[in-house]
Amino acid sequence: MSTDASTSVTRADVCAAAIADAFRDDGEIFASPMGMLPMLGVRLAKLTSNPDLVISDGESLFLAGVPPLFAKADVVEGWIPFRRVFDVVAYGKRHVMMGATQVDRHGNQNISAIGDWSRPKRQLLGSRGAPGNTVNNRTSYWVPKHSTRVFVEAVDIVSGVGPKRAREAGPAAARYNDIHRIVTNLAVLDVKGAGDTVRLLSVHPGVSVDEVRAATGFELEVPADVPTTREPTAEEQVVIREVLDPKGLRFKEVPRPDAQQGGAS
Amino acid sequence: MSKGPRDKRMSIDEVVGELRDGMTIGIGGWGPRRKPMALVRAILRSELKDLTIVSWGGADVGLLARAGKVRKLVFAFVSLDSVPLEPSFQRARQEGTIPEVVELDEGMFQTGLRAAAERLPFLPMRAGLGSDVLVNQPWIRTVESPYADADGAHEELVAVPALHLDVALVHMNRADKHGNATYLGPDPYFDDLFCMAADRAFVSCEQVVDTAGLTVDTPVQRLLLNRMMVSGVVETPHGAHFTTCTPDYERDEKFQRAYAAAAGGSEEDWAAFEQRFLSGDEAAYQAAVAAFAEEGK
């Protein structure tokens, strides 16, 4: 590994900082990341912009400290078995960042199955907690590979509920529906475009708006001026590299540029 | 002389002998964690058929589906965690071999069990609103709140139907012969709710101890099951294998990989796995697992 590659800001680091920003203004709530980059981003936020965040080991413990990815818990500050996760979902003081096999123009998410529900072409996990999350607590999505396979006109099965469908389902569904951010390996988006549609908020350094458009399978709302996603600060870079992910596990989800060039893209 | 509560110890086969074709069976644990696998394996060996299985699913669901035991499945997910997608379940869904499927949000699942445990027809909840859970299960209805909110509106909520069970099967770390039982791992999951949602509950456990032994090294708060919820107790050491049973043992990842490879492989791969591990009784299974663990050491 060249010195240059180890010190320059990588795409994975940009994603981690963008995810951290999604949790920056949440205050004292339970941050529930699903997946590696979301876990990294949440812990980065807790060590920088939002120390009040409540985090867990992803199993059953609230952690008082902020251990590196997949390290054992140090100081424990609470107990969060699955039954209590459901309690907190309904209580509302939670922000979950889930994965998404499909996301559509209206911010609906699918993790259940591809194809027809009665006999799917490809069975996935099942809807898990997505229906409940999206009508109870703040929900964001992490998409490590922004492509037209993920961003589709209409999802095959609605697991996570976007704002338009929530509104159509009535006040009980819309009241706490809060789809906050969609962070991908190319860009940051939200669902506050015209008619509750997906809107581009920023493109990551080195990514063009056209690239994001081409990787999105629906008409994306693009403002006149699209800012560039900020690079992580020097402090954040140290926290990511030295503290939270010294082994570089994040590159398994968002490969380094040299790896990207070497791969089949 | 005092007569004490009755002794509910049974064998694995006696538990399965209490089951009937067409029953609704709830399986405790969570995904690939603390599943009553010895009892599931005994169902695989039995002639039972047309079962309705209610489970936050792992290999329990995959194995029963693969064996053609499942007429109806109630689930929110099926996963092996370190292997995200359960190959046998995937295959069953993609080949359409489970005649009836009910897909719920994972929190709705708890609410449904709670309704059954509280002998209510339903409990209200937000989860499901706006999602395809209500589209694909059109028989799940909504209910209007009789109470006005601050704006004078009456919220329309999901009436989560009770998930009533004929039988619950759960696996605990320790139990006494009367059915009091503790979990020693990080999470109780929902095994108490499964038992209370069922007409009868059978508890397999790593070890049967005397009642006083249940709280010797363990806080009383870990006594999740009370004997009034339990019809039978069966000691099945390593009975949750290959799922977790912390702290007695963790998930057998090597074995799980072998299971997933066989289940996701050819018919021959699966036949070889079945022949090696699932063709005998529980003792034969455990012996085959021990031999497998020795390989490559």
Structure overview:
The complex is a heterodimer of chains A (265) and B (297). Chain A has 265 residues and is an alpha/beta fold. Helix content of chain A is 29%, strand content 21%. Chain A has a six-stranded mixed beta sheet, with helices on both faces. In chain A, a hairpin with a 7-residue loop joins strand 8 and strand 9. Chain B has a domain of 183 residues: Glutaconate Coenzyme A-transferase, CATH 3.40.1080. In chain B, strand 8 and strand 9 form a beta hairpin. The mean pLDDT of chain B is 97. Chain B is an alpha/beta fold and 297 residues long. Chain B has ten helices and twelve strands. Chain A: Belongs to the 3-oxoacid CoA-transferase subunit B family. Chain A: This is CoA-transferase.
Structural class of chain A: alpha/beta
From the alpha-carbon coordinates, what is the Rg of chain B to the nearest angstrom? 20 Å
CATH architecture of chain A: 3-Layer(aba) Sandwich
Uncertain ranges of chain A: 1-6, 260-265
Straight-line distance between termini of chain A? 20 Å
State the total count of DSSP E strands of chain B. 12
Mean pLDDT of chain B: 97
Compute the average pLDDT of chain A: 94
Largest sheet of chain A: 6 strands, mixed
Helix/strand/pairing class of chain B, anyone? alpha/beta
Radius of gyration of chain A: 18 Å
* Helical coverage of chain B, percent range: 25-40%
